[in-house]
Amino acid sequence: MLTYEPDETIAHRLDPRSKLAVQMGFAATALAHTSPRALLALSVVAALLLAAARVPLWRTLVAYRFALVILAIAPIVAAVTLGAPWIDVGDGLASARASYRVLLVLLVSAAYVRSTPVRHSRAAIQRTIPGKPGQLLGIGVALVFRFLPVLRADLRTIQDAMAARLGTERSAVERASTIGVLGLERAFDRADRLSLALQARCFAWNPTLPALSFGRLDYPAIAIAIVLALSAFL
Amino acid sequence: METEQSDVDLVGGETVRAVARAALLAALMGAAAIVTIPYPLSPAPVTLQVLVVFLAGLYLGPLWGTFSIGLYLAAGAMGAPVFSGATGGPGVLLSEPTAGFLWAFPIGALVIGLLVHREVSPRDPADVPVPLVVGSLLAGLLVIYAGGVGWFAWIASTSLPEAAAAVAVPFVPADLLKLAAALAIVRSGRLDPV
Amino acid sequence: MIEFDAVSFGFEDVPVLDDVSLTIDDGEFVVLAGANGSGKTTLCRHCNGLLEPDSGTVRVDGTPVRDDLVGARSTVGMVFQHPRDQFVAATVGSDVAFGPENLGLPRAEIDRRVESALAAVNMTGRETDLIDALSGGEQSRVAIAGALAMDPSHLVLDEPFTGLDDPARRSVLDRLASLSNDGTGVVLATHDLRDVIPLADRVIAMRDGRVVVDGTSPGALDELADLPVRVPRSRRPHE
Amino acid sequence: MIEFDAVSFGFEDVPVLDDVSLTIDDGEFVVLAGANGSGKTTLCRHCNGLLEPDSGTVRVDGTPVRDDLVGARSTVGMVFQHPRDQFVAATVGSDVAFGPENLGLPRAEIDRRVESALAAVNMTGRETDLIDALSGGEQSRVAIAGALAMDPSHLVLDEPFTGLDDPARRSVLDRLASLSNDGTGVVLATHDLRDVIPLADRVIAMRDGRVVVDGTSPGALDELADLPVRVPRSRRPHE
Ligand SMILES: Nc1ncnc2c1ncn2[C@@H]1O[C@H](COP(=O)(O)OP(=O)(O)OP(=O)(O)O)[C@@H](O)[C@H]1O
Ligand SMILES: Nc1ncnc2c1ncn2[C@@H]1O[C@H](COP(=O)(O)OP(=O)(O)OP(=O)(O)O)[C@@H](O)[C@H]1O
Ligand SMILES: O=C(O)CCCC[C@@H]1SC[C@@H]2NC(=O)N[C@@H]21
Ligand SMILES: [Mg+2]
Ligand SMILES: [Mg+2]
Fold it and tell me: Would you identify the family this protein belongs to, as annotated (chain B) (predicted)?
């Protein structure tokens, strides 16, 4: 799975906001161009960005394997036409190029994921979106990261509990709805306990924000983001 | 110390509870993303995301339901592996062929919340007439399809009907089942709204 | 009878059970001790096929668990670490009935089993109570009733005492002792051995996925001096 | 100092606390005992305004809790039963920093507090560890550190030992003892009194929402013969 890993790369030293800007610039230009030459240029840029975060290419492809299947199917769907000649190679190739640029955007986003700890993302949200909404969004994102593994374990436990008393003998629909109700019930249960803990720790509207520093490296990063975004109009 | 601390502006108890529930529902949506069934009729997979969007609108209401699904997207964008097939990262929202569904999810929750509750603080959906619940969920589903189809048509450069045939129509039966499941959960009366 | 035959198991690449061989007889009262993470829960979950060994075999009444999951799960009842983890229904009655329903029994037989299981844990007549409204001790008892209603010949309990006060703990323990006297095998994983040892026919202690003490082999207890267990009674009632 | 002055409280119409009056001094180590449902958790939650009395007043350092919630919550640190449910961040350091951040302290002061709170529970240098990768005992200690980082003068712990093995339990208990020696008041609600009583300055036992034993009034223990407590030491280190 793709997650943050501590390291000393250039990407790790950047402010999360400049990294997000680069991501958006890259996506904008990738979605604007599908000519083979543009794709070549985009591939080069993507390779540089991946290197800047030392992203392991193979593991990343494995992590995105489901998305890759979808991207691989798309050209086939596009090539098939209703009526003669049934297969339109031109459509298929156009779609294949479209899929390829999507793959590049996905890979580049792995650079953000690998180089950015949750607390930086949270800080970026809280410093970008003003006031209470930004505050709640920031803490909320941290909580989603925190409880994702907890709720996964809950869902497994529910399945085990049903299996131990032979719930496996019931219909799929019945099983699914039981898992749904129980999963939701447990999640809300945990939420209610969490809300007490948050209050006990003085959960406030105006906390000290997690530290972020906009350093020397960030200026060139922002410049790259702007150039990428502008190249969308070429 | 005293003077420093007296400036602290505590978040009210009701809000804390709503935020906690919104975050946990978003995490549940992410945990359910493990269930991703590739679907031969479509480039999009069958997932439980729509069911959780239904529940967000029904149990958290228009404000916190939308916020909850928004949290889901934000956490996914920041790299939590919460999207279909356990993927995450900003690129998914920016480019994936199915990202239109993702962007439409919070709007779907908003529509459902507004239609069912008519105000910010949700009432118990078990007390809402069943036809209204069903109608609201269908409206939410349409919004989600609209987003998904529109985006797919743009990104895969197909016509809207082609896009609908590819990523919406094949899911109608499965999504109606999820609607029935949401209804069953509401009727079970086992959950309190925020 | 539950047999572990050279069972090893790991999560991903972390080994958790390491060449465990054991035989637990019908009607035996076994206490399973060991530090956090020593593998107690993992061992328990092999008894009814919730986990499957990487190598080796687990047999229940002579049949490998993987060959007859339904049989193993109706023979070996399981109570999870946190009672709340194991409820699947909203009311006491419907939760206890969940297992028997899955056995496909006729309704009258189901009702009979629910009634007698609830009687066994002193919860007669509480069928329509909401589980959420019960105290922690009452919840533990309902969890045990849910396993009893499957009419198992073994009961595996994974730390069933957490959060219980002393009277509740003692009443659950009494129940287990009398079940064991009536011929039900009991496997009880717990950290808190104080009043459990006198009831036990046998103490098994684990460390790092291995069985390091087995109280039936005389002198075994001496091997682990730092384990806070008293030597179990040598009497074994069902032999 | 935490004062309960004729506090009564009920959930909906069920009375849970019944005319409770108590004073807990700074630096005192108080054990709170009582059966399931006797009102321990409810009492704890009044100490920092998570619940408000229906009648009577709770004061922290002389100020009614309702008049200064922030003051009460930073003076009285609270640790709940299941650490897993109360962590708000994925890593140790960012979780412990959460409380001080909410107090709006400068970053350098926050870092200092995180460091000293982690040192107090023997977890120095573990800031970047993932919370999910910690053992149960370590998680309990991080939960305590999260409360300590608020620089509280009292620590209220609601059954912090559930699921811990003996070594982990002892390590948490050691920490509490040394915090108490350094002047932090400790209120510890627990069912399992075996090795806690020798540390305590005072034992309070509840039944049906009333305080039935208060170990500082001599002879009080005799009133409740069936409560498994030994008479506490009479020494009270911080007077
Ligand atoms: N789902 C899992 N994935 C990976 N590792 C796991 C999983 N469950 C348990 N483990 C590991 O397996 C080992 C044994 O765990 P187990 O739960 O069997 O211990 P235990 O003896 O029951 O401990 P406790 O007293 O804390 O309940 C531990 O090191 C634990 O970290
Ligand atoms: N949210 C609630 N709604 C209604 N009743 C409640 C609620 N919480 C607790 N009670 C009731 O209040 C009483 C006291 O509960 P409390 O949790 O304070 O007991 P406790 O001494 O902590 O018990 P335990 O040892 O089981 O934790 C119990 O009878 C319980 O059923
Ligand atoms: O990449 C994602 O995470 C989005 C997947 C969207 C799947 C859509 S939602 C509506 C329809 N119903 C399904 O079960 N799957 C599709
Ligand atoms: Mg265990
Ligand atoms: Mg309690």
Answer: Belongs to the BioY family.
D104 to B6: CB separation less than 8 angstroms, yes or no: no
Within a 13 Å sphere around the CA of A108, how many CA atoms are in the beta-carbon half? 33
CA–CA dist C121, C134 (Å, integer)? 14
Which residue CA neighbors atom 1 of ligand 3 most closely? B84
Q: Taking the model in full, what pTM does it have?
A: 0.89
Mean pLDDT, all residues of chain C: 85
Domains, in order of start, for chain D: 2-222 (3.40.50.300)
Which DSSP string do the residues of chain D spell out, in sequence order? -EEEEEEEEEETTEEEEEEEEEEE-TT-EEEEEE-TTSSHHHHHHHTTTSS--SEEEEEETTEEGGG-HHHHHHHEEEE-S-GGGT--SSBHHHHHHHHHHHTT--HHHHHHHHHHHHHHTT-TT-TTSBGGGS-HHHHHHHHHHHHHTT--SEEEEESTTTT--HHHHHHHHHHHHHHHHTT-EEEEE-S--TTTGGG-SEEEEEETTEEEEETTSTTGGGG-TTS--PPPPS--TT-
Does B8 fall in a domain?
Answer: no
d(Cα D188, Cα D167) in Å, to the nearest integer? 18
Asked if D45 contacts D58 with a C-beta cutoff of 8 angstroms, the reply is no
Complex ipTM: 0.88
Q: Chain C to chain D, count of Cβ pairs less than 8 Å apart?
A: 44
In a mutagenesis test of the A interface, which of B95, B96, B178, B188 is the best target, namely the one with the most A β-carbons within 10 Å? Answer: B95
Strands D185-189 and D154-158: parallel
Residue C230 pLDDT greater than 80, yes or no: no
- The beta strands (E) that lie in C66-163 are given as 76-79, 154-158
Model confidence at C46: pLDDT above 90:
yes
Question: What confidence score (pLDDT) does residue C164 get?
Answer: 79
Contact criterion met (CB < 8 Å) for D94 and A119 = yes
Q: Which of D60, D70, D107 to mutate to test the interface with B (most CBs of B within 10 A)?
A: D70
pLDDT the model gives residue A93: 87
Domain residues for the domain of B141 are 14-187
Task: Tell me what the pLDDT averaged over chain A comes to.
Answer: 90
Q: Do D34 and C165 touch (CB under 8 A)?
A: yes
Mark out chain A residues that contact chain D at CB-CB < 8 A. Answer: 6, 117-119, 139, 142-143, 145-146, 149-150, 190, 193-194, 196-204, 206-211
Q: What's the number of domains chain B is made of?
A: 1
Pocket mutation for ligand 3, best pick of B37, B41, B42, B47 (most atoms within 8 Å of C-beta):
B47
Q: What is the CATH number of the domain that holds B37?
A: 1.10.1760.20
- Tell which residue, D206, D216, D222, has the closest CA to residue D33: D206
Instruction: Check whether A222 has a pLDDT greater than 90.
Output: yes
- Range ranked top by mean pLDDT from C5-14, C132-141, D210-219: C5-14
Across residues A53-74, what is the average pLDDT? Answer: 86
Alpha carbon distance D35, C101 (integer Å): 35
**For residues A115-144, average pLDDT:** 93
Q: Domain for residue B192, yes or no?
A: no
Average pLDDT over residues C224-229: 47
Ligand 3 neighbourhood includes B141 CB (under 6 angstroms)? no
Q: How many CB atoms lie within 10 A of CB A82?
A: 7
Share of chain C above pLDDT 70, in %: 90
- Give the model's pLDDT for residue A71: 80
Q: Is residue B47 part of a domain?
A: yes
User: Hey, where are the domains in chain A?
Assistant: 10-117+211-231, 132-200
Cα D100–chain centre separation: 18
Chain B 4-33, CB below 8 Å of chain D: which residues? 4-8, 10
Token couple for D60: 């922290």
How many residues make up chain C in this entry?
239
Instruction: Reply yes or no on whether the pLDDT at D234 is more than 50.
Output: no
Task: Tell whether the model's pLDDT for residue D222 goes beyond 60.
Answer: no
What pLDDT score was predicted for residue C179?
Answer: 87
